[in-house]
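The pair is quoted verbatim underneath.

:::
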Amino acid sequence: MREIGYFDCGFDRLSFDLGEALRLMGYGDYAPSDYVRSLIDKILDDLRSVVKPHFGYVLLDGYVKGNDRVVVGDVELAPGRIITHAMKGADCYALFTATIGGGFDEYCKNYKEAGDMVGALIADTLGSVLAEAVVAVLVDTLSKNVEGRGWRISNNYSPGYCDWPLSDQKRLFSLLPADGRTGISLTGSCLMLPVKSVSGIIAVGASVKKLPYGCAICKMTSCIKNQKNRKLHKT
């Protein structure tokens, strides 16, 4: 099978968690200063017209191979044992992408060029949270689209998470439409452009079980799901 769906969505559809953003900035139980809070409010207001959420997926047949491989279509991916375990029981797999668009990259560049590192860091953090919010819309859309077939979905997993090497981005992207509808390209070092973009895999099927995320056993300290100690100097 090969089933493709790509969608635009409005900013207002994104569920933004300010508390999560503040935790990623290192505030924990502390409140930001009035200056930082006003800057957060300004940047969020700016981003309403800057961010252009876009997401989608390709459904393909596949199977688990051994303990650490998943074959999707005619491509063998190497996501490692943790993610491969979560891929078991699938009838097919969704290879997905999600982005908040290239306008955000230009917006952040303005802060950096002005030497405003606090503004740049706040914008970068808000962009990360918004990108995850786009993924949440994608997951909800996919779940609703397949539930009529009696299928469930797993959590989403991306290259760079757990033991899945970032270099597998090339193989994952080889399974996506080549007509530009993803709105995302890869650099030579397998980073995505626009910067605030996410790609990955989701297991889909009647026997799929959604397992808890394994942050305690994942080695990726830079993951947004595991960034609880990141610090931002109060201004």
